Amino acid sequence: NVEDSTPAVNPLAGLHMYRLLSLLGQTALSTLVHLDTRVLDELKHRSSVRQQIEDSKREKKLQKRGNKSLNESGVDAAEEELGLQGATADDAEAEHVRQVLEREIVTGPGYLSRFTPLLQHICSSPQLYPCHRIQNAAVLALCKFMLVSSDLCEANIQLLFTLLEKSSDEKTRCNIMILLHDLIIR
Question: Based on CB atoms within 10 Å of each CB, which residue in 70, 118, 135, 180 is the most buried?
């Protein structure tokens, strides 16, 4: 009816919102896994290849000189030092990946960071989003975002506990309990 002033609600809007929220959470989690495993492993592999090349060059130089000095265990002192440098390089690479996760994916300039306020709004305003499915998807996505960034986790942990205490949906409460465990482990 044209004279009716109440706006028509699209029944698919809730489904689209649910899918968007689910996609956001899964993207954040997949990015975390990708950076934590594949990218870090590739950085370590490149570092070890670089280290092997440097070791072989150093060994050739020492063999040309003919004055390679060995300690009691048969290991060159320079090689021992390089082993420590390799561990330091691994730590630096892991720290770099953590910094990217912390400051660029769900916070800062990352594309997912644009959705963080939406997730916080949906989670903190359940009266505006009465659909339990949307609430649950928003909570799951926010928790996955929190897995990626400890700063975001610190900013929203109280919201999670409030939802755990006051949510009427038992699925939402169960998901929060499971994801709190993941947050503690991370």
Answer: 135
